[in-house]
Amino acid sequence: MPTVLPESQTPFDDTVTRVRLRVHGVVQGVGFRPFVYGLATRLGLDGLVGNDSGGVFVEVEGTSAALRAFQQQLVAHPPPLAHIDHVQMDSVPVRGDRGFVIVASARESTQRTLVSPDLCLCADCRRELFDPSDRRYLYPFVNCTNCGPRFTIIRSTPYDRPATTMADFRLCPACQHEYDDPLDRRFHAQPNACPRCGPQVEWRWSEQGELNRRFAGEECAPAGIFTLAQRVLAAGGIIAVKGIGGFHLACDATGDEAVATLRARKGRVDKPFAVMAAGVASVERIAHVDAAELALLTSRERPIVLLRKRPGSVLSALVAPGNDFVGVMLPYTPLHELLFHRGEASCAAHSPRLLVMTSGNRSDEPIVWDNATALSRLAALADAFLLHNRDIQIPCDDSVIRVVGGRELPIRRSRGYAPFPVKLPFAVPPTLAVGGELKATFCLAQGEDAFLSQHIGDMDNLETLDAFTQAVDHMRRLFRIEPAVIACDQHPGYLSARWAKAYAGARPVVEVQHHHAHVAAVMAEHGLDGTQSVIGFSFDGTGYGVDGAIWGGEVLIADYRSFRRAAHLRYVPLPGGDAAVRRPYRTALAHLWAAELGWEEFLPPVRACSATERAVVRRQLETGFNTVPTSSIGRLFDAIAALAGGRQTVTYEAQAAIEFEALLGADPFTVDRAYRFAIDRVDGTLVFDAAPVVAGVVADVQTGVAPGVISARFHLAVAGLIQDLAIALRFDTGLNDVALSGGVFQNVTLLTLAKERLISAGFVVITHRRVPPNDGGLALGQAVIAAGKAAT
């Protein structure tokens, strides 16, 4: 909350006095200086306002009443996109100024300011975009103080045009007048431009050839590019579109052939694509949207929102196969708006309503963000390129959010949110935490600010590693943080951990256990202080345990400094390691073996595995050769899904579990019973055994119970297990706060059930609202744990 001196402490009397205020928070690039100028002018105050590397500084002088009103309104009614953390105020000598002015920005090497995320097109600029009488009519880079690119074009702070990628675009007289007028909404809007002086779009054909020949001779001047793009999309083409934070690959989301072609070219077999819809009406034709989801869709962040599909819609079944949900977003830049614009009546037939809008990259590589790389790497994927010449300083992929119980559950925190910091409950030394291996993000923290990076990708190739390094260096310079401590995952094979140790040099490296980081992340985002412990459920697919096993079904008694493993799933050998992750039938066979159940031919995973492979797997399980023990709940979900007749092999992470949840249907919990885990206490640790659950599933499969019923009984079993374990550990420890984290809690059905059970048992439950429960949130947990260990 902003902090202002109480009225009784304000250094005011009835004479004219002068005060200096320093305003900290997201106060640059959001119209804060013109807001201060207007407020001071209305109140008859003299003085100045400016940006520096720490935020905004203000000096005002006038009567006591006017100064008090200024102070109150500054905090109570800031610009809509501003976020004030706190205000410092000091008395300074009266200077006798006449009037109020905005002064040049000042740079201070020891200060840092918060940077606004990129902002969606505002209503005022949208009206101008489609107003034939406006000089920015159909200009794809219209923006103002209230909208447009921020984070992705900033090279350094303070946030001024020379410190952005707009530096090379010299303002024309009309734009310069807007930029200089304190009462204009484009006053000091750093990306301000128009068709006369600003960036321009460009059309390029790739080497695909067929559509190039079909549309040879089409008008490719800026005015005709979007009409041509619409015609190419309508013909089933794929276009690489340069947006605000990188490239998208776009195609018609209603055409099976176009979507299938994109999947084949990108090497993306089943993983869902995101969809951009022309407007809310188009969204409602393909998905169910409640009030909270609508508010998120239309918010200034404009994330991809996961919505339940509407059966029988025009959306191609290939967009999100085997999934009840589809990720949908609305246009958030003028360029995207123009892709949907109906324009002339003769062109209306070609204008799309729904487009696949997926990250512009090859499978498993980071998003492409510069023209030269796009023309090289995406040439085999796209038929054409819609380029522009405004450089992207740093890429930022789309955010993905799901709504649970009317509140946000981040799946991917990126555009619209990064690099806005998470406020920590205590100060930390300058720290760089590098996260995990999948869904890579990093956290750069100092004091009470934890700057989580945008989503970068999976750290399994050189391209992602290079993108990760560039992003770290950029944010380090942007926020003027030189890390004194480096934190990483304990897994010795993680590329991120090896990178951290090489990057650290002589600086200390703190290795953080994977599941402890998950629990600490949700604690930190809820502001729990350093003295509080929780019962932390950390359920995911893979995490390196302190005993060298693969953990993933962990219940920890944890604070920021340490943890105790209070409960876990009984170990089951994972035959072939990663091979079992890609082939859930192998994990199912391992769970059958561990439960001492036969591999009967009526079971789907047995049928999916050849006799030869079965013999190999059995030999591995009996001898322990090429197996690793795992306590993973994520792998248990895979196994039960395979036993129930679901996915036997997967092409993307958690595919089996996602499709298993989709089997539940609209009203899954009318089933008569749930499966039950066995719980034993072994040397003071609660060990829960899935063998009775596996046996129950086998019996149900044998008697022909529907897969949806099996899924419901299993979800109820896991929710009941969480409640039972929490009650037992509350008895042991006296703790009543429960934290839920880890990728398994992306399963909204399980998350909702578990919360209901825990709350009914009197627990205080905290879940993720600002950072993802998956590995995209690990870096935050690593940062606060590293600080906690440094304090001991």
Q: Can you characterise this structure?
A:
The longest helix has 27 residues. With 792 residues, this protein is of the alpha/beta class. The strands form 5 sheets. Strands 6, 7, 8, 9, 10, 11, 12, 13, 14, 15 and 16 form an 11-stranded mixed sheet that branches. The chain has a 7-stranded mixed sheet with strand order 26-27-23-22-21-28-29, sandwiched between helices. The protein has a 5-stranded mixed sheet with strand order 4-1-3-2-5. Helix 14 packs across helix 24, helix 21 runs antiparallel to helix 22 and helix 22 crosses helix 23. The chain folds into 4 domains: 96 residues, Alpha-Beta Plaits; 187 residues, DHBP synthase, CATH 3.90.870.40; 121 residues, Nucleotidyltransferase, domain 5 (2-Layer Sandwich); 231 residues, Nucleotidyltransferase, domain 5. The N terminus is likely disordered. The radius of gyration is 28 Å and the shape is globular. It contains 24 helices and 29 strands. 32% of the residues lie in helices and 22% in strands. A hairpin with a 5-residue loop joins strand 21 and strand 22.
So, the CATH homologous superfamily of the largest domain?
ATPase, nucleotide binding domain
Structural class by helix and strand composition: alpha/beta
Mean pLDDT: 92
**Rg for CA atoms:** 28 Å
Q: What is the CATH T-level topology of the largest domain?
A: Nucleotidyltransferase, domain 5
Instruction: Tell me the helix content.
Output: 25-40%
CATH domain class name of the largest domain: Alpha Beta
From the 3D coordinates, which CATH architecture of the largest domain would you assign?
Answer: 2-Layer Sandwich
Strand content: 15-25%
